[in-house]
Amino acid sequence: MATTEKDLRTPAAVGHGEEQPLLRRYPEWERLVHWGVAIAYIFLFLSGLALFHPFFFWTAALFGGGPLLRILHPFLGVTLALLFYPYAAQLWRDNLMTPTDWRWTRHAFDYMNKRYENPPDTGKYNGGQKLMYWSMVAVIAVLVTTGVLIWQPYFAPAFSATTRKAAAVLHAISAFIMFVGIGIHVYAGFWTKGSFRAMTRGTVTRGWARLHYPGWYRQMTGKEP
Amino acid sequence: MALQSLDVQRRSATSTASPQARKTLEVAKLIDVSRCIGCKACQSACMEWNDLRDEVGVNEGFYTNPKDLSDQSWTLMRFYEENIEGSLQWLILKDGCLHCTEPGCLKACPAPGAIVQFTNGLVDFHQENCIGCGYCISGCPFNIPRLSKHDNKAYKCTLCSDRVSVGLEPACIKTCPTQALSFGSKEDMLAQAEHRLDDLRERGFTKAAVYDPQGVGGTHVVFVLPHGDQPEKYGLPKDPHLGPLLSVWRSWVSRSLGVFTMFAVVVAGVFHYMKVGPLEEPKDDPPAPPSPPRKEA
């Protein structure tokens, strides 16, 4: 990870008012891609909902009507996948599950209730984030594959009605899992104060890093948390 | 077509009741395969009335022409050479929409009002609401609807709903020269079919049967098949039904549960925040060294 003068440059200027320099957590490209994926997801989700349940068919109006929504949805999906997978490919090493992470997942409920702290050897991501990472890697793959199978008029005619029905079921289930996963992800970012700043401006305070990712803190500062 | 003048049983992707102040007679088309001579007059009449012109194709080496249903060919004479009980049988079937009582297309359709079922039993596509997703094709147990390559709308036989709504018989019925096609109330058509069965059995077609598949709740196009024990020889599925996949996919219960759960996730987030409060960002390192050395991992 390249470091830099840049992110340490003006801690005071970014309004933190502390003497201690901030730690850079997400480089610029990562933030841009992350929000690119997020925007694609919002549009995909809104358009997919219209096809999933008539209760939400009104979202078609946001896309210029049903036919345009149906045309746009798969292209948005491809856009998301093209942004997500190169991004994910840069992060997989940091997301390998360790015994600590599995321990974290067993305490996920306690963590949500502030009864469990991230263990001292928590690296750049905690167990929950890593599981989120791998579930998105898997779920998006299923969504893209099944999406191609039902993509009219380009690919769907090549597959049997049974295949297309099965693909549509899997597509809906995966989209549901994705919504729940992303919902937890967004809420966790909102709940954990300081995280939103990490993904918008790229930097975090030392106290934040020490509390949530002691192992990463050690790696970044050379100090014991 | 606006709905106010029609008698609608149900509409696709619509959770509330359809306009159905009137009840109309349940109608059906009876296709007596034993009387059909394969002249294709019905095909021509369909093109004429609905003003359709399919592309001129090439001779594929058999009588079926064009070779498949399309957005321009809503009915099609299909010709089969089959070996039945040791003898060659030349079977002819007028293919097209069967207008199911439980239409898989309507169940699969995600576009409100793109597919409607009238109280007389006809299932019609309203292309102005069609979004071109092709779900109706996946949902149909008979492989009937076709997407147009030009406008990405789905098309199929309407059973001349425009004619029927003003008291006329469908164009194919009107033109059939051998009375292989009849149109009337479903009750009458079934009674007529029974008469035909008696006649056929007398002539030695002991397996003759009426094809009104109950797996889709019965249909509003009913066949008299001389070899009724083997409908698949005519290209008709033996026991068509909507199937578990369609039920899982388009089930109101599972989809509504999905939506409910998604709402629940959002609500859970709100309540969690109220109850537990945010995970506050701590103050910086307590000792506050002036400028710690940065070390790269």
Automatic annotation (TrEMBL), chain A:
Transmembrane segments: 32-56, 68-88, 131-154, 166-191
Domain Cytochrome b561 bacterial/Ni-hydrogenase: 25-202
GO molecular function terms noted in the UniProt entry: electron transfer activity; formate dehydrogenase (NAD+) activity; formate dehydrogenase (quinone) activity; metal ion binding
InterPro entries on file: Cyt_b561_bac/Ni-Hgenase (IPR011577), Di-haem_cyt_TM (IPR016174), FDH_cytochrome_b556_subunit (IPR051817), Formate_DH_gsu (IPR006471)
Main location: membrane
Example of a GO cellular component annotation carried by this entry: plasma membrane
Highest rank taxon of the organism: Bacteria
Cofactor: heme
Iron is among the record's keywords: yes
Subcellular location: Cell membrane
Keywords of the record: Cell membrane, Electron transport, Heme, Iron, Membrane, Metal-binding, Transmembrane, Transmembrane helix, Transport
Entry annotated with the keyword Iron: yes
Membrane topology: Multi-pass membrane protein
GO term, biological process aspect, one: respiratory electron transport chain
Family membership: Belongs to the formate dehydrogenase gamma subunit family.
Name of the molecule in the record: Formate dehydrogenase cytochrome b556 (FDO) subunit
Annotated organism of origin: Anaeromyxobacter diazotrophicus
UniProtKB/TrEMBL annotation, chain B:
Transmembrane parts of this sequence: none
ATP-binding recorded as keyword: no
Amino-acid positions noted as binding [4Fe-4S] cluster 4 in the UniProt annotation, renumbered to this chain: 109, 130, 133, 136
Chain spans, region Disordered: 278-297
Single GO BP term: cellular respiration
Cofactor remark from the record: Binds 4 [4Fe-4S] clusters per subunit.
Listed Pro residues bias regions: 287-297
Positions that bind [4Fe-4S] cluster 3: 97, 100, 105, 140
Residue ranges of domain 4Fe-4S ferredoxin-type in the record: 27-55, 121-150
Record keywords: 4Fe-4S, Cell membrane, Electron transport, Iron, Iron-sulfur, Membrane, Metal-binding, Repeat, Transmembrane, Transport
Binding, [4Fe-4S] cluster 2: 46, 157, 160, 172
Binding site for [4Fe-4S] cluster 1: 36, 39, 42, 176
Swiss-Prot/TrEMBL cofactor(s): [4Fe-4S] cluster
PANTHER family: FORMATE DEHYDROGENASE, NITRATE-INDUCIBLE, IRON-SULFUR SUBUNIT
Protein name: Formate dehydrogenase-O iron-sulfur subunit
Provenance organism: Anaeromyxobacter diazotrophicus
